[in-house]
Amino acid sequence: MRVPLTWLKDYVDIDDLDLEALAKVMTMVGLEVEEIRMVGLPMPSGEKHEFKYTGFSWPEDKFVVAQVDEVMPHPNADRLVLCRLNDGNEEIIVLTGAPNLYEYKGKGALEKPLKVAYAREGSTLYDGHQPGRKLTTLKRMKIRGVESFSMICSEKELGISDAHEGVIILDEDAPTGMPLVDYMGDAVFDVDTLPNMVRDASVLGMAREIAAATGKELKHPNAAFEMTGPSIKGKAAIEINDLELNPRFVLGLIGGIQIQPSPYWVRRRLNLAGMRPINCIVDATNYVMLELGEPLHAFDYDILLERAADETPTIITRTAKDGEKLTTLDGVEHALDREMELVTDTSGPLSLAGVMGGEESEVNSNTKSVLLEGASWNFINIRKTVSKLKINSEAAYRFSRGVHPALAELGVRLCLKRMHEWGGGQVAKGLIDNYPAPPEDPVVELSTEWVNNSLGTDISAQEIADILIALEFECEVEGDIITAKTPPHRLDIHTGIIGRADLLEEISRIYGFDKIPSQRLNQPLPPQQVDPSLGMEENLKDLLVNLGLQELIAYRMTSPEREARRFPPDFEVPDQQYIEIQNPITVERRVMRRSILSSMLEILEYNSSLGQRLALFEIGPVFHPVEGQQLPEEKMMLSIGLTGLREKPSWQGSEPENMDFYDLKGVVEGMMQGLHIADVGYQASEYPSFHPGKTAKILIGDLEIGVMGEVHPLVKANYEMEEPPVYAAEIELKPLLEAGSILFDVEAVPTYPPVLEDLAVVVNENVTAAEVEAVMRKGGGDYLAKVQLFDIYRGKQLGEGKKSLAFSLTYIAPDHTLTDKEVSKLRNKIIHLLDQELDAKLRS
Amino acid sequence: MAEKEEALNNLEKIEADALAVLEDVANQESLEAWRVSHLGRSSPVMGVFSSMGSMDKALRPVMGKAANEVRQALETAFEEKQQLMEAKALKKALETEQLDVTLPGRPIAHGRLHPLTQVLRRITRIFGDMGFQVYPSPEVETDDYNFTYLNMPPYHPARDMWDTFYTKTEGVLLRTHTSPGQIRVMRDRAPEPIRAILPGATMRYEQLSARSEIEFAQVEVLVIGENVTFAELKGTLEDFARRLFGEDARTRLRPSHFPFTEPSAEMDVGCFVCGGEGCPVCKETGWLEILGCGMVHPVVLEYGGYDPEKFSGFAAGMGIDRSTLMRYRIDDIRHFRNNDVRFLRQF
Q: Domain count of chain A?
């Protein structure tokens, strides 16, 4: 809510606080000031400010109240006039095109001079002819042959509102020659009102907080006045159908009013607070709503009489009937449902209760009498209506957060008084008030000890009571115990333990969070839970980074079509259940992902044009709906993606090659080693997303945990990617992390020298390197410490369907230096076994 | 004796000749050639040894000794010569070998943790030092956990504070904050005391732009015990802020509202971009909002399985993306999940 400083000052004396100090007080009690817009007042001195200031100031020597004594035609232009103006010092002829001065043109000297806001030569103000708010400085120039150097200002030019249809005409009592800043300079605080502080969506509410925080007195608006008209009795009646939805309904009546603009100071305040002035009657309802926080509604009483066919108009509050319709005063027709609360009369709906009035019964330029509604509504019901009809209003904002019924009567009285002041007429004596069951305002009992134990403070019982009294609680102190009765303007205080927490918030924020001491945790350390997978996941990420991979975090939201791209075009995508989003921001992100491979391929695609080398991984959940279960399984997955060059190109050395399957396998092996997972197996396998001949499933023991391989060329073609093949792995995280170990056996570093030798064997093409290695290990026994493949050769002299695998073997004994004899015995055993089991021959 | 005389003279000559030749040796190859011809198997001095068999028995020890001395002298000379040449060669090399040290190094293909992971780890570590343990919680949540158990029954006005993605399953939504994890950890641990942090992804219905994301990372902090005070909340979070933002970091607590805490506050830290002078990042205020916090609301304690008459606690929640964005002055929040490697590699 936007609140002008001058308005706040009506209720609390804050002349001793500068803007910066006031904004700080407000922010520190929960009225967060987001911006201070200067509308005339001088900017605060000093360089460092804690708040954002916008707007501009009106220097005393530049901007003054002036009077226009005569409006004369322009010799060369119909749409311009010349004003004989007195600025308190001198008489000047000022040129203006303001349409609201045309009516005075050529009338000679005005009987009542018009008071205006006048900007002298050299003033800096907003340019009225440009969109937005752009500052400009008044310079001497000739317009259609007449010299112009100063200006009679519009609201837009002074930053009061965006209105530029005419110049401001001030109230008659504005003193000519007075600096404009002294007359109506202001600053507007833009306050972010917290959802639980709707009581402070009012000038009085904010003033109350400021008064409490600064120890100043709160000055309530005076609603007392003499109602001089005939009694309201018999002029209207109220029927409430459901007290839950409408606990109170108050009516007041004013007749013989004159529909006219409100005084300028009222219009200015409304504008500054962000509401458009309409006429004195509508303005009075809005003014009191901003002042007190109680939204009010004015009906044209004569229209109600007409609708009642001259019977006593009866206001009936009820929920809508099926098929009932109402056109609100914004011209929109709403189809209503049986939950929506309405204000009606015997002829049908009048207004959408607490939200917006109806078009038919609204105040218009012919209105003579007004029936004024002040009511109280169930905030949940209003919220439902607002969200269903997608309608909003200042009234709905407040009623949907809860307005105390006590404010209804006060609001009506204050508003009738203001209508009478601004629109004349006679206020009918008395009110009609239907309030059969006023709620008990909650009483909360709390002990000083509890307060101090909760806050970590040492505040006295009296100090606590004083804070609550400043917020208008009724308090009694008896020893350690404070009993506080909630004031009749707020609905956010409960009873019991919740009420105590509610009061703790009030006490702490007014006492000041900055005065509460800071302490380190003084609690016993809770039992330490063990979740080894969390540490293991961290290890895994570090490992993959050390293996040269970049971590990603992908969007969880995607679409089934996007995920289907991970299959070849002719593949029949299985019909899979997704977690579907009811209100997606785009169809592209309307489900939660099921495939982490899909995210990886999209990110490879996104980065593909950069060329070079891409080596990426992601650890994150995929979402699988589970039959008969409300929440999906959030399965943690690891994806790895590689494509492009093996090494980064350099100015030196040979041209790097593209990565292949074995780069991916190297990463996977490095990962398994780093996690200390033994018993890992790789088996050639087929998966729809992968190249049938270049893919392996990854096993730990017998358990399949994932797949790795070259992405199927037809799948790759679904993405816009550069030429090099793409390699990817998709692995379930849980079994991987569970197999990992932080406790493992460390082999002793050998003290005796190793014996190295190379062994090349020729085998049939279908024999794998892993099989050869296994046989070698079997033959070599414990002394064969390492077997490493270093060459694969195929050639004519080997024969068709044969290949040669060359291994480097390392023999070590832990307790002595191996002799040639021992080694040759092992070698012979290996060669024998190879021959026997794999039909492998030594390559000669 | 003449035989002895002659033999000794011969040895002297062998030595003198060899040394004379060595004098002129100028490179490694001729040095090696010299070694072969003057110390090798068929060298003169070795010839002396092999001719010993035919020598007079009495002469043998004398000649043997003398020949050994010559051999040793030649070997010493050889080693000295070799050292001299190596020293020379090294000197020359040091004088002539010169690199262009401005040439780029051989590029090493490295990886990095995602920036959000890095920041999250710093946060986890700071709280870990204070005895907080990580507790994982689901990203797809029920309406009850996300709202109702956090003291926001249906149609509660505070539900408006979060723009929510709902799923097509009744009562299931994408969590708008990590706070539902509070209830999960409480129900898991009650009635034990709690010191937990709950990191994770959260989702909010926003229009994607440079300043707003639909998915972002948060961390929730929760302490439950038998007499947890607001002063402890303040002390713990101030310590945290100092450790994350530096010893000199200024902080302030400002009243706020969250339905699941009471009193509620927001913690601001002195703007680390401008040092509090005021800049566009802090909207000229000198303060940046880093987290929301407060004392756990009695209703939440009760939903979590703790008796609010006996237990109290505090909670805090912070967004990781936004503070990382501000910290590194990143121009677009979407970089975090677009995963452009040119962005990611910089961290």
A: 6
> How close A456 gets to chain B, by Cα (Å)?
5
- The phi, psi pair for A527, rounded to 5°, reads -55, 135
pLDDT at B108: 83
Helix (H, G, I), strand (E, B) or coil at A361: coil
CA distance to A383, A384, A490, per residue, from B154 (Å): 10, 10, 21
B252 contact residues in A (CB cutoff 8 A) = 513-514
Q: Give the mean model confidence (pLDDT) for residues B230-239.
A: 97
| CATH code, domain with A473 | 3.30.56.10
**What domain range is A333 assigned to?**
237-434
Question: What does DSSP say about strands A426-427 and A248-255: parallel, antiparallel, or unpaired?
Answer: antiparallel
pLDDT band at A611 (very low <50, low <70, confident <90, very high): low
Taking the Cβ of residue A624 and every Cβ of chain B, the question of whether any pair is shorter than 8 Å is answered with no
pLDDT exceeds 70 at position A229:
yes
Q: Where are the domains of chain B?
A: 2-96, 115-344
Say yes or no: A546 contacts chain B, CB-CB below 8 A.
Answer: yes
Q: What is the mean pLDDT of chain A?
A: 94
Phi and psi, residue A4, nearest 5°: -75, 140
Q: Specify the DSSP element, H or E, that contains A281.
A: helix A280-292
Q: What percent of chain A has pLDDT over 70?
A: 100
Please tell me whether residues A158 and A197 are part of one structural domain: no
Neighbouring residues of A695: CB distance < 8 A, sequence distance ≥ 6: A684, A685, A686, A687, A707, A708, A709, A710
Spatial separation of the C-alpha atoms in residues B249 and A4, rounded to whole Å: 34
Is there a contact between B298 and A547 if contact means CB atoms under 8 Å apart? Answer: no
> What ipTM score was computed for the predicted complex, to two decimals?
0.87
What is d(CA A429, CA A409) in angstroms, rounded to the nearest whole number? 14
pLDDT tens-digit map of A406-463:
999 999 999 999 999 999 999 999 999 999 999 999 999 999 999 999 999 999 999 9
Residues A399 and A255 in one domain: yes
**Does B96 score more than 70 pLDDT?**
yes
Average pLDDT over chain B reads 91
Mean pLDDT lowest among A129-138, A632-641, A733-742, B152-161: B152-161
Check CB contact under 8 Å for A194 and B337.
Answer: no
Distance from CA of B304 to the nearest CA of A (A): 15
Rounded CA gap, B324 and B115, in Å?
Answer: 8
Under the banding of pLDDT at 50, 70 and 90, the label for residue B1 is low
pLDDT, tens digit (0-9, with 9 covering 90-100), for B295-308: 999 999 999 999 99
DSSP one-letter code for B159: G
Q: Stretch B61-74: mean pLDDT, rounded? A: 88
Is A639 found in the same domain as A571? yes
Q: What is the CATH number of the domain that holds A793?
A: 3.30.70.380
Most A-contacting residue of B145, B161, B167, B207 (CB-CB within 10 A), to test interface = B167
Is B144 near chain A, with CB under 8 Å?
no
Interface contact B339-A553, CB threshold 8 A? yes
CATH code of the domain in which A407 resides: 3.50.40.10
* HSE-up of residue B136 (Cα within 13 Å, Cβ side): 14
Q: What is the percent of chain B where pLDDT is above 70?
A: 100
A521/B232 Cβ within 8 A? yes
Calpha distance A660→A303 (Å, rounded): 85
Is residue A247 pLDDT above 70, yes or no? yes
A592 and A506 share a domain? no
Any idea which architecture B115-344 has in CATH? 2-Layer Sandwich (3.30)
Interface of B with A in 265-324 (CB under 8 A): 265, 276-278, 283-287, 295, 297-299, 308-309, 312
Over range A640-668, report the average pLDDT.
90
Which of A434, A460, A495 delimits the end of a domain? Answer: A434
